[in-house]
Design goal:
Structural class: alpha/beta
Strand content: 15-25%
Number of domains: 2
Helix content: 25-40%
Bound molecules: S-adenosyl-L-homocysteine, iron/sulfur cluster
Strand order of the largest sheet: 3-4-5-6-9-10-11-12-13
CATH architecture of the largest domain: Alpha-Beta Barrel
CATH topology of the largest domain: TIM Barrel
Length: 380
């Protein structure tokens, strides 16, 4: 070990199989044993959730000692943890460079959903979304995406316990997942791996504001369930509230949805529709919505608007949401209304925002981050 590599351990938690394998090449392991060693480490990290390399008892003592010179099993720091009166749990996680994101666990009768972030902040500026008011600081690495699940499992005591509490994952936390495609793809492939965290792709939903060119790639290379943040039925309104629509208008977005690989009645697209009083919640718009998505295997998720300090919208009246839902339902589409959860701890949809906004993403800072990332990869 050189001076340079000393004390610069990389955590194995959150790494992909490929990254672990690359890392093992620096040890004296015969090529034909490499995959077996990767599988063993994979099981310890993602199946057992261990905290110390010493516990990897299927590896020789010598290999464990060597591994410890370069690696550890550290998780990101939990800066804050809050529990709502409805049982929703929110963690504020801090990564090595100081940037922070939020992860939310929403327990329900028969399932538990973990809402995972893909970026620190978001570059897009949907007018009803709190995260959109935060400057993008950076994309998360796939390691940082996966470590959100590991932290949640630690905190919920899920490693030892059956049945599982986290049954579903939604990429609906901070950020636009399709603007961080490779990391989100590698993260989802890691969390869905059968021999590890083993969360079926059918139980993982990627939500996008509509980055059209990446939708087909997501279908081909990720294969999770897809949710589209539609929120409006005409381009004029959508340009205003989901400004990325100016680049990728509704017609192109719906065309990409029609072509999403693997769609069927059992694999439907979810269209998310945030209910904004007097803005997008008329009965005429409900009818337009049904026409617009006709022919696409889909369901519509109606999301009561969650307000945040400084937001200029109001949530539609409950009666109006129900009327809207009935029309969509009669049009042949399931239209569940999403119950707001964790509002008292600002954990509901669109309320997430971390204090990392205070760090200006100046060019200099971005360069620093690029350096951190290239060193991280170099050390593997
Ligand atoms: N960037 C992705 C995923 C994160 S946002 C996307 O936009 O799809 C997750 C969901 O929360 C989206 O449907 C988003 O439109 C919705 N959302 C954002 N702000 C909200 C708010 N204030 N109230 C309710 N839902 C909101
Ligand atoms: Fe970004 Fe999604 Fe919020 Fe829009 S709704 S600002 S895409 S996180």
């Amino acid at each position: 070990m050189t001076e340079d590599t000393k004390n610069k351990e990389v955590s194995l938690v959150g790494l992909t199989r490929k990254e672990i394998k690359e890392s093992l090449r620096k040890f004296d392991i015969p090529d034909q044993q490499l995959n077996m060693r990767v599988n063993q480490i994979w099981g310890w990290v993602y199946n057992k959730g261990i905290n110390s390399i010493d516990e990897m008892t299927t590896l020789s003592l010598g290999l464990r000692e060597e591994l410890k010179e370069y690696h550890n099993l550290e998780r990101p720091l939990i800066s804050d943890e809050q529990i709502s009166k409805d049982g929703t749990k929110k963690w504020l996680l801090k990564f090595n460079d100081g940037s922070e994101v939020e992860t939310v666990f929403i327990p329900d009768d028969e399932r538990g959903t973990l809402c995972v972030s893909s970026q620190v902040g978001c570059t897009l500026n949907c007018t009803f979304c709190h995260t959109g008011t935060q400057r993008l600081v950076r994309n998360l690495t796939s390691q940082e995406i996966v470590s959100q699940i590991v932290i949640a499992k630690d905190s919920l005591g899920e490693w030892e316990e059956e049945p599982r509490q986290i049954t579903n994952i939604v990429m609906m936390g901070m950020g636009e997942p399709l603007y961080n495609f490779e990391s989100v793809r590698d993260g989802i492939l890691t969390m869905s791996d059968d021999a590890g965290l083993s969360i079926s792709k059918r139980k993982i939903t990627l939500s996008t504001s509509g980055i059209v060119p990446k939708i087909k790639m997501a279908g081909d290379e990720i294969g999770s369930m897809l949710a589209i943040s539609l929120h409006a039925t005409n381009n004029d309104l959508r340009n205003e509230i989901v400004p990325i629509n100016k680049k990728y208008p509704i017609e192109e977005l719906l065309e990409a949805c029609r072509n999403y690989p693997g769609l069927s009645n059992s694999k439907r697209i979810t269209f998310e529709y945030v209910m904004l009083k007097g803005v997008n919640d008329s009965e005429a718009e409900a009818r337009d919505l049904v026409k617009l998505i006709s022919g696409i295997p889909a369901k519509i998720n109606l999301i009561p608007f969650n307000s945040w300090p400084g937001s200029s919208y109001e949530c539609s009246d409950w009666e109006q949401i129900e009327k809207f839902g009935d029309i969509v339902n009669r049009g042949g589409y399931a239209s569940p209304i999403r119950t707001p959860r964790g509002e008292d701890i600002s954990a509901a949809c669109g309320q997430l925002k971390s204090d990392t906004k205070k760090v200006r993403a100046s060019e200099k800072y971005k360069k620093e981050l690029a350096k951190i990332e290239s060193k991280r990869i170099g050390r593997l």
